[in-house]
Write a structure and sequence with these properties.
By secondary structure, the protein is of the alpha+beta class. It folds into two domains: about 180 residues, no CATH class; about 210 residues, no CATH class. The chain contains 15 helices and eleven strands. Strands 1, 2, 3, 4, 5, 6, 7, 8, 9, 10 and 11 form an eleven-stranded mixed beta sheet that branches. Helix 2 packs parallel to helix 12, helix 2 packs antiparallel against helix 13 and helix 12 runs antiparallel to helix 14. The longest helix is centred in the last third of the chain and has 44 residues. The protein is elongated. The two termini are about 30 Å apart.
Amino acid sequence: MMPRFNPFPVVGADLRRNRLLAWVTVLLMALSVATGIAVISQERALRQGSARAADDFDLLVGAPGSNTQLVLTAVYLRPQAIPLLDGDLLAKAGSAAGVKYAAPIAFGDNWQGHAIVGTIADFVSRGGTLQPTQGRIFQRRGEAVVGAGVALAIGATFSPAHGLHLPADDEATHGDPGHDAAHYTVVGRLPPRENIWDTAILVPIEDVWSVHGLSIGHAASGVSRIGPPWDAGHLSGVPAIAIKPDSVASAYRLRAQWRTPRSVALFPAEVLNDLYLTLGNVRDLMSVLAITTEVLVVAAVLMALLVGFLARQRQFSVLRAIGASRLYVFCVVWIEVVLLITTGAALGVMLGWLGSNGLSHWMQSQFGFAMPVRLGATEEVLVAGLIVTGSIVATLPAWLVFKRPIAEGLVSH
């Protein structure tokens, strides 16, 4: 006697008998879902990771030019020649009302590919809010504080190489006398920040100026000093100044104050928002393409299943002939289709998450900041919508099998 209320034994037997079609269906569904998941989650991870990397820069001041390039160079340490801000502006920024600290950010050297950044102690400690996990903040020239990702132990000494990349073969072979004469001793290590600054080496800006033959910001009587107050007559230019305002109101006032013919002032979030708008447009386009692909895949899969079910019409007519009801046969077909769609969607979520994580790790090595991958409500809606749509459309093959007369299905062709 045919089990009247349990169609799963027949569904399981049918899937085992047609396992190739079942696996192809599941894999097609999984790949389409994985594509949508990866696009949406990766865009979100890039947005969150890049925003977190800019948290230490409340207000950025630089010479007139590209705002985007200023942010990419100063915040994300992307090597690029940018115009220098006049040195006297650094002295004015440090003494301006509403400023906790005005930190010069100077580049130009590296150690084994790690950017050496000249700045002041207040920036290293982020105004006293960031303490080293080992050692201390530099207190004199010739000392260095390394990021969490730099393979230099406390007490290690090293010499800088010119440029923001590894030295060329001839420079590595013959040396760079100007830079070989400079030596730094590591005195501290910062905690992990999950951004490009984990790979940076921070030194007094006076050393960066000195190694390039520039004025070091102090008169002859103060050559051993580091940091402000500066002697405006002995200041060299800097690529950027990171200003820490003492309040939100001060931040907006300082931004307006430093937007002059000689300087630009911006909140890095302003530039990032413009980039996010572009990313959002790309994400929307990719999401539409991913959804369209899913719809086409679902349609193709259902057509293939429909052809398969019609080819097995005799099998379902035999079930009807031995006592199965129309509803029973309808449930067998509908459950089989829904199981394939649901399994494909679940596998697609896993593949999409794994793919997005792999892409994040690769992009982290390229951009230097962590991009946490988390699945959110958008992905849940995408998968749920696919399953619900597939469940509704699955009634088509089930209905065609449901309404066909037994005698017609038993006729041999």
